[in-house]
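User: Predict the structure for this protein chain, please.
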Amino acid sequence: MTPEIENAFAAIRSEYGSDSIERVEEMLDSKKQERHPLQQGAKWIMPGISQQPWHDPYGHAEHTPFIAALEEQHGAIKSELETAWAARREAFSNYEHYLTPQDDWQALYLYRKGGLVAESQPTAPTAYKVLKEFAVDTEKICPLLECHFSTLLPGAAIKPHSDLWNFSINLHLAVDIPEGCGIKVAGETRSWEEGKCLLFDYSFEHEAWNSGTRPRTCLLVDLWHPDTTVPERAALVALITEIRKLMGEN
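Assistant: Here is the predicted structure, written as structure tokens:
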């Protein structure tokens, strides 16, 4: 570990207790890691987090208000998205995924690089407002990741993969869902129900596709996994931020 990480960890232990970030430190010791077979592709697996691929969207009290607000505002969110797709297509861009560039996977970012994307507020004001009030201001969003409208064009497919770690969890609000779309997580296929949310641990292998005839759009939000604690979240932000700095990432 770098001196910056060691100092950050020491400050957290001083505030929260000597054992408050033991699981984060154990995560860094690859010799102690035990992984589910379908999490082998993830870079970081923090121990003690439930090995549960799919989650009940209303099963975690800290995320329930946000999920309820998204579903309640689905009509307005979808209407604003349709207007933006038709009249402000330039606001969307190819999704920047570490797998491979895909021009049939479009994104409109509301939150990234640790902050809200103010330029997107006029394009998607309802989603932006709900995100800010229920996820950003309450610190439920994982600041290491993002929130965006994810649009798969007809015929697009995202190949099976695991994302970087298990200490955040992925929320999908089904905004506009044509027939012929699906998502598979840890071998289980589900369909989006328009206006409802799905919640899953994306450290498990997953894939998605749009075999329909029009675009499929979900609002994706990276939330802290409910099994993580406040001091662990602080330690993880310090750790990953420093690693990204060392790797020359913005």
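The chain has six helices and twelve strands.
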